[in-house]
Design brief:
By secondary structure, the protein is α/β, with parallel strands linked by helices. The protein has a single domain (3-25, 35-281), classed as Phosphatidylinositol (PI) phosphodiesterase (TIM Barrel, Alpha-Beta Barrel), CATH 3.20.20. The protein is built from eight helices and twelve strands. Strands 1, 2, 3, 4, 7, 9, 10, 11 and 12 form a nine-stranded mixed β-sheet that branches. It has a three-stranded antiparallel β-sheet with strand order 6-5-8, covered by helices on one side. It starts with a helix and ends in a 5-residue tail after the last helix.
Length: 287
């Protein structure tokens, strides 16, 4: 395969998985995008379930990625940050899967009407990973047309791309599958490893454990080079990049850090401040 063809294939695969830079999966009618607000594909709603209207608040702010923490309790997947927060009525199905399926039906195949890029649903497993993933897999299969699918070496994009994070024991049963409706959230230690983007679609890690800069003063040249090397290596393999534990208090430091992340090609900006990130990205329309 020629080098340009290989690069094109990697770029297409990564875009299909994460939906960040993908072109629409099918042509939209002329002027359709002009009638719908531009989704903010770089915006990731961390702890999305903690908002007054989980999922809906993030979508109202046009976010391209949302995150839900899940616990396997009996045969239920409950959503919450800590065990004390769990409520039997707040299941993954009721807060995310069923509303997404309904929205896609109403949106003629799209989460964001008029835009064919997938929404990323990051599912952070808080209980033992193997059993919890298998319970998650059973639920995702109940929505055969909702999720991006991997089957026997091929990736078929859907309206939502599910990515599994959290407890690392989920990796084993996921890698053993020849067909699945979820992808894996790798770490920087996976960057450049043997797992392809068709398995590890996303590389995420803790910002404060890898960088000292938190937006005050200038970004050290060595750290800027490190950050751009990370995104360059991931993108060359069709993978996307996200950091958590970035500063999230409104002010110049957060804006400076978000600006550097975008300039370096980081695909998702992590926040609990939906309106704040929306305003920032609207002020940077080329992102």
């Amino acid at each position: 395969m020629a080098l340009t063809t290989r690069r094109r294939a990697l770029t297409t695969l990564g875009a299909a998985l994460a939906g960040t830079f993908a072109l629409p999966a099918s042509p939209a009618p002329a002027g359709e995008h002009g009638r719908h607000p531009r989704p903010l594909w770089h915006a990731h709603a961390h702890n999305d379930y903690a908002h007054p209207r989980p999922l809906y608040d993030a979508l109202d702010h046009r976010f391209g990625s949302v995150e839900a923490d899940i616990y396997l309790v009996g045969d239920q997947l409950l959503v919450g940050h800590e065990p004390a927060d769990l409520d039997p009525s707040r299941t993954l199905e009721s807060l995310y899967l069923e509303p997404l399926a309904a929205r896609v039906r109403a949106g003629h195949g799209s989460v964001h009407p008029g835009w064919r890029r997938p929404l990323q649903l990051l599912v952070d497993i808080k209980t033992e990973g193997s059993a919890t993933y298998q319970a998650l897999d059973r639920r995702l299969r109940r929505y055969p047309r909702l999720f991006t699918r991997y089957a026997h070496g091929r990736v078929s994009p859907g309206p939502v791309t599910a990515v599994v994070s959290g407890d690392r024991a989920a990796r084993g049963p996921m890698e053993a599958q020849t067909e699945r409706r979820a992808f894996y959230d790798g770490r920087l230690t996976d960057l450049g490893g043997p797992a392809p983007a068709s398995f590890i679609s996303l590389i995420s890690d803790n910002w404060t454990q890898n960088f000292s800069w938190t937006g005050e003063g200038g970004f050290p040249d060595a750290e800027r080079h490190k950050l751009r090397s990370i995104t360059g290596a991931a993108h060359a393999r069709g993978q996307r990049v996200r950091f958590w534990a970035t500063p999230d208090t409104a002010g110049p430091a957060r804006d400076a850090l978000w600006t550097e992340l975008l300039a370096a090609g980081v695909d998702y900006l992590n926040t609990d401040d939906l309106a704040g990130l929306e305003a920032f990205l609207d002020a940077h329309p080329s992102a």
